[in-house]
Amino acid sequence: MLKDKNILIGVTGGIACYKVCEIISILKREGANVDVIMTKNATEFITPLTIETLSKNKVVVDMFGEKDYVEVEHISLAQKADLTLVVPATANIIGKVANGIADDMLSTTIMATPKPVVFAPAMNNEMYNNPIVQDNIQKLRRYGYEFVEPVVGNLACGYQGVGKLAKKEIIIEFVKRLLEEEK
Ligand SMILES: Cc1cc2nc3c(=O)[nH]c(=O)nc-3n(C[C@H](O)[C@H](O)[C@H](O)COP(=O)(O)O)c2cc1C
């Protein structure tokens, strides 16, 4: 079902970063081509080396990292993607996209894609319940961005509440359903 689909994964700087590894492996196993953009902060949590090995593609972090500009990478990645999945999605990336900020490779590419964008947020429950974060989510939903909602659970910060990344199976099913609907 994912055969020949181009899925762009955006990885942002949250403690749930390590969970993206399994998601990438499953998508690859199911036949998708997976490109990955990591924010600079995400690379504090997991290395591009791990992601490159799993995705079998070069990971992009820097907006100005390329030495030759034969291709404008944020545009080519944005055009190539059948769907963009931001996992885990920080409060920061949600806030930036909701407010039209394009100050790094990921936020700029999201701005440039005409295809569906799915956010899978993960954060501390107080952060998730912050009315600013909730307003940003509602605003993005109004613009047609999709969300796989986080669940209630034990959070890495020691708190209990809503903010735990949705299960990988739920995220992948969501992606598949959206791609099917797009067809
Ligand atoms: C140990 C640690 C864990 C963090 N976990 C999260 C998290 O789960 N969710 C979140 O929104 N921010 C989290 N942050 C804060 C983000 O890293 C911070 O807001 C950063 O600016 C996000 O940048 P990015 O969205 O460009 O990756 C964490 C920070 C640290 C130091």
Features:
single chain; 183 residues; alpha/beta; Rossmann fold; two-stranded antiparallel sheet; 8 helices; 8 strands; globular
Question: If you had to describe this structure to a student in words, what would you say it looks like?
Answer:
The protein is α/β, with parallel strands linked by helices and 183 residues long. It has one domain: Rossmann fold (3-Layer(aba) Sandwich). Helix content is 41%, strand content 20%. The strands form two sheets. Strands 3-2-1-4-5-6 form a six-stranded parallel beta sheet, sandwiched between helices. Strands 7-8 form a two-stranded antiparallel ribbon. Strand 1, helix 1 and strand 2 form a beta-alpha-beta unit. The radius of gyration is 15 Å and the shape is globular. The protein starts with 5 loop residues before the first strand and ends with a helix. Flavin mononucleotide binds at residues 12-16, 39, 41-42, 90-93, 122-123, 127.
